[in-house]
Model the fold of this input.
Amino acid sequence: MNHSNSPIEARPILSVRGVTVQFGGIKALNGVTFDMQRGQVLGLIGPNGAGKTTLFNCLSRLYQPSDGDILLEGESILARKPAGIAKMGIGRTFQNVALFPTLSVRDNIRIGGHCRSRGDLVSDALRLPWVLREERELDRKIDEIVDDLDLGGVADREVAGLPFGTQKRVELGRALAAKPKVLLLDEPAGGLNHEEVYVLGDLICRIRDAYNLTVLLVEHHMGLVMKIADHVVALNFGSKLAEGTPAAVRSDPAVIKAYLGSEAA
Amino acid sequence: MSAIEETLGQTVAAVEVRKSSMPTVARLVLLLGLLVIPLGVSDFVVFQVTTVLIYAIAILALNLLTGASGQFSLGQSAFYAVGAYTAAIMMEVYGVNYALTLPAAGVICFLFGFLFGLPALRLSGVYLALATFALAVAMPQIPKLAVLEPWTGGVHGLVVNKPEAPFDLPLSQDAWLYYFTLSVAVVIYWLCANLLRSRTGRAMLAVRDNEIAASALGVDLSLYKTLAFGTSAAFTGVAGALGAIVVQFVAPDSFTFQLSIAIFVGMIVGGVGWLPGSLVGAVFIVFVPNLAEGISKGLSGAVFGVILFAVIFALPHGARQIADWIAKRLPR
Done:
């Protein structure tokens, strides 16, 4: 771990502390611990069934760990309701894209701003002046995101008919509208071709810088992880196998063994 | 992003989002039309058109629930009944002015709908439809209860006095009630249209389209589902209160589940999720049964069924389809 390299930002933005998840007798996660530093892209890798998705679901509050804690800037996210963590600053995308199919690109992204706005039933129905101001402010923000993600040409189209790659960018934009501190990306390269994966990698780095994000990347695509991750955590059978720079983790014998089997190692 | 995407984009991405309301010009023309309708027609026709507006409000309310939040309801007649009885009891038992009964009916029905929405959270789709159906079946029995009879009038119901036009306006009672109902309908339409393009409305649409994604973005699923129920019930209750005032009579059997079905049919015929369709749906459920009776007295039900079948077959998206068709052909 490279704590000593960044003394000013020594406090991790996100801490995973001994997280354990049990399904019946099976431990899907067994005391996994690691820290994410501000501004990092952290790659979470591991073979199928290693527990990546389980951990991802804990971070996005779909699963409740039986033991351990997850801290965002020192505050436990496990005490919050699932709908409350967006406001805390955790945003996510979905493996197979989970958009609102009948709504426009712009409206999808607008809904991302839900946790950062206050409109309530009565004020919204009466369209009070402060609601109008809030809507205008939101629209300005949405326009920026639409520009940043190059979605201007399709902004008023229904998302259901858009190509998969575009839908992924819409989902990214929607997550950005919630102003997350930590962005969780669930296999963003899935379903993209070689060229698109490269563009995606650049895009992730670009929005990380532009929106001051810390990114957790769960990914099968080794090329993408090795290219953009600053730090890599490898899981196997629910436990942490290795952690470090992409190069160090890639050459770690335990990781090679887990991916390729013992003979190859 | 890539060449593939550009080519794909041209073929599949050309779908414009369907709007939930209408352009301003169409709105003004419609409003003008509605303003002149009572001039030069008999009081009975005015009464019928008033009924159309009342049903339009009830259909609008269901559209908010089903169209926006994606929840089915066959229980709208129950909310309508609560609103109607609220108005009738306030006017006849406590002597309250008719105009004041509308907000009261709205508030009471909001609470009723919100509370009903809580257990309904555990249900969705056809199961929710069944639960709301149960509500609709149970409701007509409630006013008949002996303990409530001093207020509800039991099986005999309550007769309501017809209000006069205020400020010595040169309007018949029916014409006044028409304009009164029209004003309420316009306000409720405005509230619904505002809601749908606001944070609250978008949250409801998000819940309808994808619950998991909505929750990940901080949308409280239970809150917005029950709010949708409450709001829908409130507007239905206002429609019920207007119904009581205009018909001058409430009785348990005016509010059977057939009323729920009629409101449901109206929503489908108008186009689910398209607010102006509510008016078309209301015209359909008020006038088509009369038309069917005109064609054949003995087989009016069958004729109505055939007409309904033909409409749904030709226009599965309801009146919205016609509006879309016209909008596409208008010069931009």
